[in-house]
Amino acid sequence: MKEEYFEYIPCPVCNGEQLEEFFKIAFGRLKQKRSLDYSCLGIHQGSILKVSRCKGCKFVFVNPRVRREYEHLVYNQSKQNMYLNKGRYTVGTVENRDFARQRKLKYFSIFPKMLNYVNPSDSLRLLDIGCGFGHILSLAGELGIESIGVDIDEFRLDYCRQLGLKVFSPSEFKTCYEGESFDLIVCQSVIEHVIDLNEFLSFIDSISKEKSILYLNGVTPYLIRKENRRGMFVKAHFVEHVNYFYNSTLDFFMSRAGFKPASHEIIIINSRKIRIPLKLARVMRPKTGFFERIYIRS
Ligand SMILES: [Zn+2]
């Protein structure tokens, strides 16, 4: 690994410096995706990736991690082969229709989950942070929700623009929307990638207001144990997935920007809404290694 691209950090959640080793593994033991090439970061099969746990707040995170200023190497340069000549990423092909349909079906459930906490008759504005291929933005459009997306992947931004979606790079967004806030904020499979969590939290803070609803999902430390038991590291992929939250750690982190977990989870059975207290919902849920949460700003 090229040392100049990586740095050791204190706990980004509580700033604690008392860290313990949680896990380490050679890059060669992670699932190798032919489309991704991390050689630009000096990562090779024998490179050891290390994961720390904070003794204070129990946050689990990759440490050392890529420095913020080299993030583009992970999210643009290393992915150059990923999109080459792939029908699924070419707007208008049959493969693309199939890809978009499958993803939209997967993400659709985010909407009833969020809209349970707002008046659905209000005019609503949604910001999708890490909007990827714009599936959530397209679905929001169908529901009459004004939606805007931000992403750092240039290929995906260009793809979304071809679909006529309103998307921006982080710097473009800052220029166009400085000081504006959103009713609905979606961070779908984003927080595990975030290199600078404090910058991320300030951003969430800046674009939210009282009663903003935040949808957040990501990975928990249990995922590392689970994939280790199976001997297959797919989602516990320590180059891109650098943050692993327990419930309590995430609640503490989000509270720093005034967000509280919704006190109930609402599930819909036979068109009826059933409210389950959050504590009960957390106990009932099987351990999967993934979390999915709704936060409300107070
Ligand atoms: Zn901590």
Comma- or semicolon-separated keywords:
single chain; 298 residues; Rossmann fold; seven-stranded mixed beta sheet; 15 strands; 29% helix; globular; binds zinc ion
Short account of what is shown:
Helices cover 29% and strands 23% of the residues.
Describe the structure.
- This protein has one domain (6-297): 3-Layer(aba) Sandwich (Rossmann fold), CATH 3.40.50.150.
- It has helices at residues 71-75, 94-107, 110-115, 135-142, 154-162, 170-177, 197-206, 221-230, 247-255, 278-284; strands spanning 6-7, 19-26, 48-54, 60-62, 65-66, 125-129, 146-150, 167-168, 184-187, 213-219, 243-244, 259-261, 264-269, 272-277, 290-297.
- Helices cover 29% and strands 23% of the residues.
- With 298 residues, the chain is an alpha/beta fold.
- It is globular and about 55 Å long.
- Helix 2 crosses helix 4.
- Helix 5 (154-162) links the parallel strand 7 (146-150) and strand 8.
- It has a seven-stranded mixed beta sheet with strand order 8-7-6-9-10-15-12, sandwiched between helices. Strands 2-3-4-11 form a four-stranded antiparallel beta sheet.
- The longest helix has 14 residues, at 94-107.
- The mean pLDDT is 92.
- The structure holds zinc ion (ZN).
